[in-house]
Amino acid sequence: MSNANQVTKPGFWGWLNKRMPVDSFIKSSLTEYFAPKNFNVWYFFGSLALLVLVMQLLSGIFLAMFYKPGETTAFDSVEFIMREVNYGWLIRYLHSTGASAFFLVVYLHMFRALLYGSYKAPRELLWLFGMIIYLALMAEGFMGYVLPWGNMSYWAAQVIINLFSTIPVIGGGLVEWIRGDYGVADATLNRFFSLHVVAIPLILLMLVALHLIALRENGSNNPDGIEIKEKKGPDGHPLDGIPFHPYYTVKDIVGVCFFLTLFFIVVFFVPTMGKLFLEPANFEPADALSTPNPIAPSWYFTPYYAILRAVPNQRIGALLLLIAVLSFFFLPWLDRSPVKSIRYRGWIFKTFLTIFTISFLALMWLGLQEVSTLYVWLARIFAVGYFAFFWLMPWYSRWDPVKPVPERVTYHA
Amino acid sequence: MSEAGSQTVDSPVDESRRKFLTVATSATAAVGVVFAATPFIESWAPSERAKALGAPITVPLAKLEPGQMLTYVWRKKPIFIIRRTAAMVSQLPAHDKELKDPESKDSDQPIYTQNEQRSRRPDLMVMIGTCTHLGCLPKPHFDAGDPTPSLGPTWPGGFLCPCHGSRFDLAGRVFNGSPASVNLVIPPYSFPDDNTLLVGEDGTKKGAA
Lengths: 413, 209
What we know:
By secondary structure, chain A is mostly helical. Chain A is about 65% helix and about 0% strand. The chains are: A mainly alpha, B alpha+beta.
């Protein structure tokens, strides 16, 4: 803070730093911000999420220049973007593929936290901010999916908004208030547009700032789950730390190159990803009198959707859906293990994490299928696997035979 | 003001006065926030135009044959109007044991339709065609014994929701094993005359059970 003033540099740079802490900020968060030297590929996804956020903002700003909210104009304006706006197809596919990429990257980012115990003390708040980002992202993704006003947009809005009707007493009135009409209508579409392009992006940016501030406070966790700040050299820097810039900025660029290669293969060659990113029913205009068959949400919501469908009581189904999402919030307090990283955990945790991962993916797949008795039962079994990971954790994480954690990070140069 | 202005830096702070002013200012601000939020929250409620468009609708019934169904839209919701045959009505009590709410005790309907047929007139079934689970459109499967896997040969005739597989009978009553918990909702309706249906208004009690 004050050292920027003590070193008076000549010229514009000196003038600038006397008025704004540019130099000290670059030092504290890049060139003298020490990150563990043993990051692996799992540590790409944080910076990739930031990249996708910027890409979504950029493509979104341009889409909003051509999109016209409103139940008579929305669908046509999306077709206008696809067919007549110069490179409109590219901008729209960037945005629609970006939505799926965002969730993919965020899910991998979250899985990394599960692997290495990054949510554990002292990073509980960092994890909570991340989880609120995930919730905001779900709202953003859902509302964005409604905007093209295709038939799947319409029915997704119908089903998701009706989830609120299961709340006792206030449910019915609340649903009417959210829709602004007696059904999903023009009013609903317009408010979703406003929330999708203004309110939630602003909230997301603020949350990302909070997430990063909380990250800087304790620094990143690492694949060994060791606090590098506990072992400092004579210069006061962590022995196992390296400056974020240039080491990790350059490393992250490698990740960006790989990511963008895969991303643009999808954008250019398979933008609908075989009905997964853009569903066929959404190429038909919204129709209040025709339900698409089957109705399925975007792939990134299907694990929760499968849980909802598996319950024969709608109120309990909606409640379980809510608990399924919110369970992540409690992880820092459910986990009683003395070690963070999976490298030093025992077979019990590894087994539960494997069951959870299989359950999550299986539910994701089941949520995309048509209902049948077999699938409903499978969804119930995998839902048990999903919830067991979280709510048995206070016990199994304590019983888990952990291995001794080394003093310093393991690193092979 | 003059008293505060004459205070020197060293004057002792009146802690209780400071506390009172802090609390009073915060409370006033909190009330202000509630008032300021009200118009914004209220703006989300259905507009006057939406309310006007939600007025009752008239349905002519003369051309509706027994066994047929008409779908009208009222308040953005599909209204199913079914002219039930005598056979369809008479088989209704037969499967009461397979239903979650056979007497419609937990379901939403006007009192004049809370009877065995769930209607003002046994031959005419009027209900909102959105699944009480999550608002999809149940599809008509009127014929008894249906090849659809989830229905099968014992199917008495009714509706199947394509989204999550909820099943309803010809009075909109939900079958056991469906994700929906309550029967299909019945809107307020009345018959100005024998061949006209008015959806959205209880009207005169003509034909009431």
